[in-house]
Amino acid sequence: MNQAAIDLLTRTVTRLPDWVRHDLAAKDSAVRLRAEETLVAMIANVLSEGTNDAPRD
Fold first, then answer.
1. Which of 16, 23, 36, 41 has the lowest CB atom count within 10 Å?
2. Over the range 44-56, which residues count as b (16 or more CB within 10 Å of their CB) and which as e?
3. Distances, alpha carbon 55 to alpha carbons 9, 21, 23, 30, 44, in Å
């Protein structure tokens, strides 16, 4: 993975909503799964489309 991709992912993780952060540590597997799916969707989106603050190739 190149540095640009790492920086993009880092910016994405720093923008995670508080509920996602909280739910990732939940003991309830359904709650945790929802947070995991949200995180994956955010990462997939940023990898395919970039962000407003990142230049696109």
1. 41
2. eebeeeeeeeeee
3. 14, 27, 31, 36, 16
42 HSE (CA, 13 A, CB side): 17
- DSSP strands (E only) in the chain: none
pTM of the model: 0.74
Spatial distance between the Cα atoms of 44 and 36, rounded to a whole number of angstroms: 12
For 25-35, write each residue's pLDDT tens digit.
999 999 999 99
Render pLDDT for 7-54 as a digit per residue (tens, 0 to 9): 999 999 999 999 999 999 999 999 999 999 999 999 999 988 865 654
Q: Which two tokens stand for residue 7?
A: 């920086």
Asked if residues 55 and 18 have their Cβ atoms less than 8 Å apart, the reply is no
